[in-house]
Amino acid sequence: MTDTSASPQFVHWWESGVIYQIYPRSFQDSDGDGIGDLAGIERRLDYLATLGIDAIWLSPIFPSPMADFGYDVADYCGIDPLFGTLGAFDRLLTSAHERGLKVLLDFVPNHSSDQHAWFRDSRSSRDSAKRDWYIWRDPAADGGPPNNWISDFGGSAWTFDEATGQYYLHAFLKEQPDLNWRNPEMRAAMYNVLRFWLDRGVDGFRIDVLWHIAKAEGLPDNPVNPDYRPEMGEKLKLRQLHSTNQPEVHELAAEFRSLADSYGDRLLVGEIVLPVADMMEYYGRDRPGVHLPFNFQLVEAPWNAGFLRNMFAEYEAALPPGGWPNWVIASHDYPRIAARLGEAQARIAAMLLLTLRGTPTLYQGDEIGIGNVIIPPDRVHDPKELREPGIGLGRDPSRTPIAWDDSPHGGFSAAEPWLPLHMDWRTRNVAVQQTDPNSMLSLYRALLQLRRSEPALSIGSILLSEGSKHILAYQRSHGTSRLQILLNLSGTERCLPDGLGSGDLILSTLGSRPPDGWLRPDEGLILRLGT
Ligand code: GLC
Ligand code: MG
User: Fold this and answer.
1) Predicted TM-score of the model (pTM)
2) Locate the Glycosyl hydrolase family 13 catalytic domain: which residues (predicted)?
3) Range of 72's domain?
4) Cα(271) to centroid of ligand 1, in Å?
């Protein structure tokens, strides 16, 4: 028998690594149409490699009428001409791999575009061989929709099709008909889609709205949500009890997983927006589920040390054995972190995200601290904002282009970008921040470098301390190495609680200084503790 206790624990790349989300429309344009593309991303791979991330996840790049900006897929095995060609994708993949970067695609299984050949066939006749690939039902007795379900973007989740006299279901836009995962042929076709990309060499997928894909048998009405208020958006009128998170979804997740595992070390990140206990089930019930059920708790959590400490403790305690944590602070669907917290606390959020236990996902543009962007009414694109205007649901402000330098259009494009740049792009851009040691970008780089060189941060254990009302404090350890993280969540100088200030300073969010038992306003510290 070999004694393996002394050999280093095998760590998957996605456990120790950091994921960076690219919103392709807004990363880098290469052909002067004002919209980012694959060749643009390829041009910026050196930037990403130097930043210190390990994997990029690309929001959808497949052929799409763009009713929901790519989350309405018209062909799962192609590339939209806006973004390039399959050849351009292969080049990007190869170039990324040459730099040691993994590439994740966005797999959208809940719905296709209404322009997908499958749906066009399905809606052509009740006898279509693909009729059952989507969810068709007869009208209710009064001619209205088959049940009370509401689309996540407001309005009924059903659209009547005159030609065949039935309604089809869509959890999002009517241009995004829901696929029927109870149909074995459709399932097989989707598994072939996964194989198509895995065969090409992609390293995994982020799975869009995974918790939506199975619906309750019989499609019963959803119950009314007693806490609904109009400013929440119409979807919250009902509790999505029967339309989401059904037991069958775990079967499907397990099938995705075994397919991915048959290709070796590939990663599945499942988008799950559910309470912690439900989210945990997506790690798998009887069989493994997705590797990482995307943990969105930080994107909306109150910025309060006590609240966050409890949230971290609960999440850690709820993880199943072997379940690897993950964190995200912003995305193309949520407000930018600097818009939500202001620039000073966005630096604290950066330190938090990159020192918590578990795989972090950064959202493009947060590393230069893009804040709130005002979108003039005539430039609104997001269907969510267009359908329920003025209540703050719009996602365009988080989807604006990256400013690379102070040349026209921020070096993003030779033409006017599809969404406006942030107001301060002439001074807030990658080129400026690269040369400023105190910039947000330099902070992100320092944190990413530290995370890479300190196993305590990338794979170590976490110990949450009591801290105080305004100070979040925790230790990360691996072997004999112990790091203390101290985050001042307020704009006021704070005395460190007893026993927490000792140690050698490794990094402050405010630049170098001797440790003195205090946290300056909006300061975060990483200290090395003695062994
Ligand atoms: C996910 C995507 C979002 C999209 C929705 C419908 O939540 O992140 O952008 O609108 O799914 O596909
Ligand atoms: Mg372009």
Assistant:
1) 0.97
2) 21-399
3) 9-112+184-447
4) 9
